[in-house]
Amino acid sequence: MAQSISFSEQVNRYFDTAAALTDHNDLLLEVIQRCNGVYKMIFPLKRDDGSIEIIEAWRAEHSHHKQPTKGGIRYSIGVNQDEVMALSALMTYKCAIVDVPFGGAKGGIKINRANYSQAELERITRRYTFELAKKNFIGPGIDVPAPDYGTGAAEMSWIADTFMAMNSGMVDALGCVTGKPIAQGGIRGRTEATGRGVFYGIREACSYADDMAKLGLEPGVVGKTVVIQGFGNVGSYAARFLHEAGAKIVAIAEWDGAIHNEDGLDIPALIAHREATGSITGFPNATFIANSLDALELECDVLVPAALENQITAENAPRIKARIIAEAANGPTTFDGSQILDAAGKLVIPDAYLNAGGVVVSYFEWLKNLSHVRFGRLEKRFEERAYRGLLQAIESGGSRRFTEQEADLLAHGATEEDLVESGLEDIMVDSYQQIRNIYLTNDGCPNLRTAAFISAINKIVRCYEELGIFP
Ligand code: NAD
After folding, report:
1. Which of 177, 299, 324, 418 is a good FRET partner for 171, with 20 to 30 A between their CA atoms?
2. Cα 235 to averaged position of ligand 1 atoms, centre (Å)
3. Which residue owns the Cα nearest ligand 1 atom 4?
4. Whose CA is nearest to atom 9 of ligand 1?
5. What is the DSSP string of 184-250?
6. How many Å apart are CA 243 and CA 43, to the nearest integer?
7. Would you call the peptide bond into 68 cis, given omega within 30 degrees of 0 as the criterion?
8. DSSP H or E stretch at residue 242
9. Residue 306 C-alpha to ligand 1 middle, in angstroms?
10. Would you say the CB of residue 362 lies under 6 angstroms from ligand 1?
11. What does each C-alpha distance from 46 to 50, 54, 324 come to in angstroms?
12. CA dihedral 85, 89, 92, 97 (to 10 degrees)
């Protein structure tokens, strides 16, 4: 079966499968499914050598049922209109699944960032922001971009700076973009948020003994063998947290090859190796696999695609040995590939849920920007004092004395980082339970992906019902 349908059609098929299991008004379902608006732009870039190049870019706003809309910006040569539309739809469903009050959006610039200098990337990013602002496609209450494939904190800070320069005096202007550096209104924990959320999602899925028994696996992440495709922001943090929790990362696949060691890779050492050499290749004590895609077919318990879309297709899905496919990337499995994985009894933790950690913590950053105060700033010292008082009261009863270490741990007031981590953990655990319950209680629901879409559709429908437009 060749992969012939577009990414948008693929997302729509997932939507349709879920919609068929609901009894909502057909027209309302169509309103939810269709992309509200796409802005395609073209602008010239003056390169460092003085030559001029045309840059193509997009921003799609899929749904305005909640505002602002929200979604990352990717820099990749593979960017096209269909891709940003599909990704913006996934953002709408993702936000609904994890109860983050945004509509979905996505942006993209069709460039390979490796071909441009820092100064050129800055000019591209600032011009893109200017174009968005001109058309009202950016703003703290309108549309709030974030990092995605090929972008990070530096691009977000250029976006914020350009937007603020164009909107002098707008008190909430910093909330126009998330994923910013801390000194520019960013939030602690955003950089690692998606990878951390991926870890929480996998850990939650592995915690159900019944579900694991069906896969022939023991509950828990300890000792699980894991293969990860993509060692960028999402993949490297997911690897780090899984490694710390006792999972065995047996292979990492990158664009220039994969490395494999069935006894497990030392992830902190691999991160250091990549920082020093710029590549995962050449890492000691690992076998090199030249065709990186082959790594997806290695023997393991959990496969984590964390690079790009369309990596697991009808062609390679029958050869995938992992029992759990944890979709950290957006759209890593094609519709046909997904059906093959289902038929083989695999547990697919769907992208729209699993990689929501980024938008969850982006939501916290946006709230921080609107409230103009760091989380924990007001209550941290008060909490510490109250907890210490409680410990002293217990000690004065004579039944227990606390060591200094115990007292420090128990009387610790929550910092911004603590609150971000616990808020993210709570949302990832709670959302997984919601999806799993729908899967278990909805007759005919074939998998967790469909359950996640049903969860999103039901929540968005409730928004429209409250408007009273549809019967
Ligand atoms: P990134 O640019 O930091 O990392 C991507 C990594 O994949 C890079 O290391 C790149 O070299 C590698 N890669 C590229 N082609 C590859 C190939 N053919 N085989 C193996 N590896 C390859 O991007 P990211 O932010 O980590 O995003 C990865 C995925 O996660 C994307 O699908 C993105 O949409 C999704 N995602 C990211 C976030 C976020 O917060 N960054 C949030 C949600 C979803």
Report:
1. 418
2. 7
3. 232
4. 232
5. GT--TTSTTHHHHHHHHHHHHHHT-HHHHHHTT--SSSTT-EEEEE--SHHHHHHHHHHHHTT-EEE
6. 44
7. yes
8. helix 233-244
9. 6
10. no
11. 6, 9, 47
12. -150
Q: CA 290, CA 279: separation in Å to the nearest integer?
A: 13
Single out the residue of 421, 428, 431 nearest to residue 192, CA to CA.
421
Q: What is the pLDDT of residues 353-388, one digit of tens each?
A: 999 999 999 999 999 999 999 998 898 889 999 999
Closest CA to ligand 1's atom 37: 148
Residue 233 tokens read as: 């922001």
Report CA(283)–ligand 1 centroid distance (Å).
Answer: 20
Q: Which atom of ligand 1 has the smallest separation from the CA of 147?
A: 41
Which pair of tokens denotes residue 465?
């019902």
Q: Could you give the domains of the chain?
A: 1-34+188-379+414-471 (3.40.50.720), 37-184 (3.40.50.10860)
Q: Which of 154, 164, 168, 83 is nearest to 125 (CA)?
A: 154
- Alpha carbon 419 to its chain centroid, in Å, reads 19
Return d(Cα 61, Cα 144) in angstroms, integer. 10
Q: How far is the CA of 112 from the centre of ligand 1 (A)?
A: 13
192 CB within 6 A, ligand 1: no
Burial 209-232 (b: 16+ CB within 10 A, else e): eebbeeeebeeebeebbbbbbbbb
The pLDDT value recorded for residue 350 is: 97
The CA–CA distances, whole Å, from 290 to 287, 298, 313 equal: 10, 14, 20
> Are residues 428 and 355 in contact, defined by beta-carbon separation less than 8 angstroms?
no
Residue matched to tokens 């050129």: 120
Give the residue whose CA is nearest to atom 27 of ligand 1.
Answer: 149
Q: Are 90 and 78 in contact (CB under 8 A)?
A: no
The CB of 104 under 6 Å from ligand 1? The reply is: no
Residue 384, Cβ density class (10 Å: 0-12 exposed, 13-18 middle, ≥19 buried): middle
What are the pLDDT digits (tens) for 154-194? Answer: 999 999 999 999 999 999 999 999 999 999 999 999 999 99
Residues with active-site annotation:
106
Element containing residue 259 per DSSP (H, E): strand 257-260
DSSP three-state, residue 98: coil
